[in-house]
UniProtKB/TrEMBL annotation:
InterPro entries: AAA+_ATPase, ABC_branched_ATPase_LivF/BraG, ABC_transporter-like_ATP-bd, ABC_transporter-like_CS, BCAA_Transport_ATP-bd_LivF, P-loop_NTPase. It comes from Streptomyces finlayi. Pfam families: ABC_tran. Keywords: Amino-acid transport, ATP-binding, Nucleotide-binding, Transport. The lineage of its organism: Bacteria, Bacillati, Actinomycetota, Actinomycetes, Kitasatosporales. This is ABC transporter ATP-binding protein. Residues 5-237 form the ABC transporter domain.
Length: 238
């Protein structure tokens, strides 16, 4: 299989503090790959570096055959890498439709954009029902759906999702996880950062466990789900 994303010995620092200490992993086309780990493990830092918001201090990133070091964030989006950030970052005063349109800022195929907005409404019907309302009136889970819908509007080759289940009710979380599975079944490649290890590993092809800036364990989703150390540390088992 060809790697869509290849990360080798990636290092990222905030001043003197090294938050990512030489991690390596790959994401093949069509896969869902998850990074799990506790708070502060460096998962968000990794995604922010991949999308060009932070500069790596070392290592190599290759995306769809392009080296990403030094490439500005908007060019990385143009290459096909979209990021649905932690905390959502939707525009609360703009309508739901306007938020989705912003996700297509690099495109000018009006008809294609309209089709993809409709696709977002099909994926998340609540967004369609409330399309003319300010996005700030949506619940947390609905805002998460909007953030995912917006990231999909750039028609990414790789969709990166940072903690999509954060702060959501179990029902909303279930819905988000089902949507991720649905996106995978239509061929979308996904890099998923999650604190909810059970949910993430249940649908991931591969997973990597991060602890204080390092990948300490890698395997298939099912392998990690059944791994004793993972079960103890992340799935709350004795
Ligand atoms: P979380 O789930 O809490 O976001 P995470 O695994 O995504 O955890 P990061 O947010 O990447 O972890 O943080 C990794 C380390 O980098 C932590 O020690 C954190 O305190 C530190 N860090 C993150 N952002 C900054 C920043 N802007 N300045 C300084 N240190 C930071």
């Amino acid at each position: 299989m060809t790697a869509l994303l290849e990360v080798e010995d990636l290092r990222v620092s905030y001043g003197k503090i090294e938050a990512v200490k030489g991690i390596s992993f790959r994401v093949d086309e069509g896969q869902v790959v998850t990074l799990i780990g506790t708070n502060g493990a460096g998962k968000t830092t990794t995604l922010r570096t991949l999308s060009g918001l932070l500069k790596p201090t070392g290592g190599r990133i290759s995306f769809d055959g392009h080296p990403l070091a030094g490439v500005p964030a908007h060019k990385i989006v143009a290459l096909g890498l979209a990021h649905s950030p932690e905390g959502r970052h939707i525009f609360p005063r703009l309508t739901i439709t306007e938020n989705l349109q912003l996700g297509a800022f690099l495109r000018n195929d009006k008809e294609g954009i309209a089709r993809d907005i409709q696709r977002a409404y099909d994926l998340f019907p609540i967004l369609g029902e409330r399309r003319k309302q300010a996005a700030g009136t949506l619940s947390g889970g609905e805002q998460q759906m909007l953030a995912m819908g917006r990231a999909l509007m750039s028609r990414p080759k790789l969709l990166m999702l940072d903690e999509p289940s954060m702060g959501l009710s179990p029902i909303m979380m279930q819905k988000i996880m089902e949507t991720i599975a649905e996106l995978r079944s239509t061929g979308t490649t996904i890099l998923l950062v999650e604190q909810n290890a059970q949910a993430a590993l249940s649908l991931a092809d591969r997973g990597h466990v991060m602890e204080i800036g390092k990948v300490v364990l890698s395997g298939t989703g099912p392998d990690l789900l059944h791994d004793e150390s993972v079960r103890k540390a992340y799935l709350g088992e004795d």
